[in-house]
């Protein structure tokens, strides 16, 4: 089907929060063919062409051995698709722009994104106390998501993931009280780190994984660590989409500091990482799944939990509430 006469607004008629696809591609060429964006793979002397439905895609991760044409990037931009270059199996993620080397995305250029959210955001962002309150608001949303998907309705998790209810509630309540009483960002970050450490321990015990220590960048052969990295990078992709949709720059973080590049992407991804990625990583590690199976597991979880909706709504509500404090 030709895209002749199709405007950029036509390509964005499916809201980003309702789009179904996140692609990880390797050993292929992404190009435009007959008006469609396709990726081409080689098997011997034969070439195989696969369509990418860009209007229903949030992010594309390009792994080892990939190339993309200028025309394909133009179509991705027209449809508002985030594009990232990454290593094998999606980690680490990097691209040639101003964002942090481990979490980088090429953002579509658009002068027509909303301005209200950014204007509201900057109206409170330079006030230390208001920025701290916004960071706390994000953390409270994070706690709600964890309780919802670890104890409540969780169609994306197997029935055998049953963390001890009292233990989890105690962890979340302790974190909530500590975060409420935090007087600065350093204290809040400490509370966040303690929460994450407790959740790792509980998730590991729940599935019978044994001793677990979180290692930077996958920890070599440790499957749970590798899957945590891969799932987190997918969450960063959704977070980058959320910030792009609302028009708020990555530099205006509320939790991860004023100087860390891409900080707001980390802030937004934290809303759903523990709730959705962490259980999947331990379950997949116990099952001995491969990387592709785990990525699909995470993508299904994001879709079923409306993760991108949560991110966008959280940004919008925080921007609005921060502006009127």
TrEMBL record:
Keywords: Antiviral defense, DNA-binding, Endonuclease, Hydrolase, Magnesium, Manganese, Metal-binding, Nuclease
Signal peptide interval: none
Pfam family, one: Cas_Cas1
First-tier enzyme category under EC: hydrolase
Biological process, per Gene Ontology: defense response to virus; maintenance of CRISPR repeat elements
Superkingdom per UniProt: Bacteria
Record-level Gene Ontology MF annotations: DNA binding; DNA endonuclease activity; hydrolase activity; metal ion binding
Self-association and partners: Homodimer, forms a heterotetramer with a Cas2 homodimer.
Protein name: CRISPR-associated endonuclease Cas1
Gene: cas1f
């Amino acid at each position: 089907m030709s895209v002749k006469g199709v405007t950029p607004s036509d390509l964005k008629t499916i809201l980003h929060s309702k789009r179904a696809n996140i692609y990880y591609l390797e050993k292929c060429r992404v190009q435009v063919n007959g008006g469609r964006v396709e990726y081409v793979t080689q098997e011997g002397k034969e070439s195989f062409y696969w369509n990418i439905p860009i209007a229903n895609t949030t992010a594309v991760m390009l792994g080892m051995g990939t190339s993309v044409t200028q025309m394909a990037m133009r179509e991705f931009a027209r449809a508002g698709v985030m594009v990232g270059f990454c290593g094998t199996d999606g980690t680490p993620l990097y691209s040639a722009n101003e964002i942090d080397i481990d979490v980088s995305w090429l953002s579509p250029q658009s002068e027509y994104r909303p301005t209200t959210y950014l204007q509201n955001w900057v109206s409170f962002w330079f006030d230390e106390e208001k920025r701290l309150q916004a960071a706390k608001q994000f953390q409270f949303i994070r706690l709600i998501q964890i309780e919802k998907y670890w104890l409540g309705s969780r169609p994306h998790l197997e029935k055998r993931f049953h963390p001890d209810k009292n233990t989890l509630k105690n962890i979340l309540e302790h974190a909530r009280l500590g975060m409420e009483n935090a007087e600065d960002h350093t204290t809040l970050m400490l509370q966040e780190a303690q929460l994450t450490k407790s959740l790792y321990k509980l998730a590991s015990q729940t599935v019978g994984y044994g001793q677990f220590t979180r290692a930077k960048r996958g920890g070599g052969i440790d499957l749970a660590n590798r899957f945590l990295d891969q799932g987190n990078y997918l969450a960063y992709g959704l977070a980058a989409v959320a910030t792009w949709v609302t028009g708020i720059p990555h530099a205006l973080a509320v939790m991860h500091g004023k100087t860390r590049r891409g900080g707001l992407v980390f802030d937004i991804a934290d809303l759903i990482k523990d709730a959705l990625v962490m259980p999947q990583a331990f379950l997949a590690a116990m099952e001995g799944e491969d990387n592709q199976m785990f990525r699909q597991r995470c993508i299904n979880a994001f879709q079923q939990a409306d993760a991108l909706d949560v991110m966008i709504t959280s940004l919008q509500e925080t921007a609005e509430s921060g502006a009127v404090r």
